[in-house]
Amino acid sequence: MKIGICHENIVEYDAVGNDITRSAFLLVELGFVVHLIGENISESIRNKFSIIHAQSNRNLSEIDLIIYHHSVFWGEGESLLKRFSGTIIFKYHNITPEHFFKPYSKSYFDHCRNGRVQTERLISSFPSAIWLAASEYNRLELIQHNHELVD
């Protein structure tokens, strides 16, 4: 089985990046072929895994399963998912509520608001996808979206 693990940024010393790389190493050890799919990927990570740039025209038909880590608004990621016809698993890492950034940064405020709206859209656009939460807090947040989760 060929698995694509997606996130806009896959970098070292980042919680989501560490989760992705640890999962990728484990899946490779189990005999799966793993491709990391993103836009900004650390060079040290690029040297260890097969990389597909999210904006490439590369055919996704060679991938059987996408594990999409959702923690930020990522328009290109959503476009990528729409081009994919296989199984999708979302791993939800939470998106910071935008009100925390309102007094400090319009850019961060907009990015977080757009990400939280995107969460709703992803839930409704991919009804057969499996959603996993990275923590109990994130699980409870998904339940607030009236979404059923895998236990």
Q: Could you explain how this protein is built, in words?
A:
The radius of gyration is 15 Å and the shape is globular. The mean pLDDT is 91. The strands form two sheets. A six-stranded parallel β-sheet has the order 5-3-1-6-7-8. Strands 2-4 form a two-stranded parallel sheet. The protein has 151 residues and is α/β, with parallel strands linked by helices. The protein has one domain (2-144): 3-Layer(aba) Sandwich (Rossmann fold). Helices cover 38% and strands 23% of the residues. It contains five helices and eight strands; from the N terminus they run ββαββαββαβαβα.
Can you tell me the CATH superfamily?
A: Glycogen Phosphorylase B
Q: How many helices does DSSP assign?
A: 5
Count every beta strand, where a strand is a DSSP E run of 2 or more residues.
8
Helix amount, in percent? 25-40%
Structural class: alpha/beta
Question: DSSP strand (E) fraction?
Answer: 15-25%
User: How many domains make up the coordinates?
Assistant: 1
Radius of gyration: 15 Å
* The first-level CATH class name: Alpha Beta
Order of helices and strands: EEHEEHEEHEHEH
* End-to-end CA span: 23 Å
Residue-averaged pLDDT, rounded?
A: 91
* Shape annotation: globular
